[in-house]
Every structure is written in structure tokens, then in C-alpha cells.
Amino acid sequence: MGCSLRTVWDERLSSYNFGPQHPLAPVRVELTMELSRELGVFDAPGVSFASPEPASDELLELVHTPDYIAAVKRAGQTLQADEPYCLGTPDNPVFPGMHEASSLIAGASVEAARSVWQGEVQHAAGIAGGLHHAMPGHAWGFCVYNDPAVAIAWLLEQGAKRVAYVDVDVHHGDGVQTRFYDDPRVLTISLHESPLTLFPGTGNPNETGGSAAEGYAVNVALPAGTDDARWLRAFEATVEPLVREFQPEILVTQQGADTHALDPLANLVLSLDGQRRAYAALHRLANTAAGGRWVLLGGGGYELVQVVPRSWTHLLAEAAGADIDPASTTPDAWRRYVLERTGEAPPLYMTDGRSPDVRAFENGFDPEDPVDRAIQETRKAVFPSHGIDPSL
């Protein structure tokens, strides 16, 4: 069955560019859009496009301080580092038009949220977004403005009373958690590699929300080496029961593709096929727990050719109700485009050839398995706040 999907896209979104040596390269989004076009995702019934407008200062100030916004504008004009705001660091180099590029991504995510909230479409995608690390008063982890947080804050301004945010990036969604840590209207859930082995060093299970929102910040910290089956087991045992219990009015998700085994910056070992299963699970949750209202954003992902375009094309296809057979070959025209654009040999198939066999957590807890221990830590930390028995 088809779904209505609005993709918020404009080639100007590629101007968020830290330079040729930086791992967050906009070509990954360009390759995704081209692959999705070639595979007919955008030809599916109910798929439409919208062009974003830059987020105004007023919108950005729902999350960011006025002095920080002014610093971003200044840095993009002078190209001078501003250390108190973490601008001009190796992670967050200054580039011309930094404010304009960053505010456009924030505007795209708000437009996606608006399209869904106002009932124009069931689902909306802003895959250039998902910049979940940016803090209210400084840049952080390749992120200048926190577009997921801005979109969620906009939804709250419109009267939303329950927003669920699920972040499956390999890195902890620390900036979004920080913004809503004391707000019980927002349930933030992050599945990520353990802070013991990966940036940003936060996201432990005992980070559960402020005194007014105890249990509304949820963190599943997975050990390095977690594979498809165990990642999906953790998702089913934590995310699904919490979102079903919360019954959000809208689901906002961040789909960093850096959980993949080939990603150069992290240590989980998911396959494209495991990621595809995760996207299908998020889609089901949107339909069963959030009335079909789903805003899906991009995020991290630093294997620019082999992983991100295929992963996010599956994501867009899932949201469009136009699933792509994993055994499909990548189109010849796309392969030529990849070679011309990057000089790299493109992948030949839309699969890694994996079929993860997931064992339900309810069928038995293994205390010797570090993933099971991580799952149980999270369940014990937050399930009681939602009236859920962590032992079931």
C-alpha cells in the first residue's frame, strides 16, 4: 500500500559543506537523491516535493541562544574561528555562508514537520537534516544548528502535547536530549554505541530526564561490535514498547547510517539489510502508535558511496510505500554518475546479502551477553516511569 510522502529538497542544501577533507560531505545526499530518482522512488503514488525556506532567527531561537546565532552569522562572513562557540574547530570548520546553509537545513526540517502536522501528507523527509549534536550555545559534532530540536520545538509551539523522537544514529543524540531533558511532552530515545568507546561520551542509561520529566530521556548504549540481530533485538525490547505506551501525536526520527560496519568513524557492524529492517520498524511504529504521522531525517554516515546512498534510498522507499527489492541491482545511470562525481567504484546491488535472525528479548535474557545487559539497564532505568514492567 502506498503512503503519502513529501521530500523536502533543494540543491542549495548541499551548501552545508565543511570542505573537501571533512568526513561530512554533502555528496552523500546528492547520491541518495539521484539513486532514489533512478529507482523510481519519487514516481510512487503520493510522493511530492517541497522546497525549504531558511529558518528565521525566531525559529532558531526556539533552541539556540541569540548570541550563538549572531556568532554563526559572523563566522560565516569573516571566516574567523570563534572558540567559545566551537566554531573553527576541526569538527566544525568555518565556511562561507555558514548561517545561511545551516538555517536552510533547519528550515527544511521544520517544513517536513509542518507538512505532517498540518495534515498535508502522512510522512515527510528531510534527509539533509538530522544534525542532532548542536547545543543551544555552541556547535558540536559537525552540527551548527540542531534541526531536529528546532522542528520538535516548532511542533510544541503549534500545540503538540506528545512528540516522540527516536534516534538510531551510531552517536548519542545529545543535543536533542539536552533541549528537552526537562520536558515530558517529548520522549527522546537514542540507540547508539556506548559512550565508553565513541563520541560524544554521553548517553548512559542513567540519563533519564530531569525532575519534571523522569523517564522521558531514554538511552540504549550498545557495545562496540553489535551486529544486526542484536541491534534489532535491542530496538524491539526498548523503543517499541516505550513508543506504543507514549502514543505520540507525531513521530520524529533521525536515521544516521553510521551504524554500518563500513563506517570509518564508529564501531557497530550493522549491514544495509539490518538498517532496512530498522526503517521498516520505525514506519510500523509511526502507523500504529502515531496515527501515521512520521517526520524522518538524515544524520551521520561517512561511507559516502557504498553505504549512505543505498541506506537512505531504502529509507525513502519505505516511507513512500514503494519498497525496493534488496536483490535489485543499482541502475547503470547511477553507477556512471557515481564514478563521474566521486571517482569511486559504485556498489552493484541494493543489499549486503544479510538476513538477520532476531531473537526476541522476551524469550530469554542472557546475562553473559553485553547487549542483553545494555537492554536490561535501559529497561530498568525508564520502564517503571511509564508503568511498564521491565522484567516482562
From TrEMBL:
Signal peptide: none annotated. One of its GO terms (biological process) is acetoin catabolic process. GO terms for molecular function: histone deacetylase activity. Keywords: Acetoin catabolism. Pathway: Ketone degradation; acetoin degradation. It holds the Pfam family Hist_deacetyl. Residues 22-317 form the Histone deacetylase domain. Belongs to the histone deacetylase family. This is Acetoin utilization protein AcuC. It comes from Haloactinospora alba.
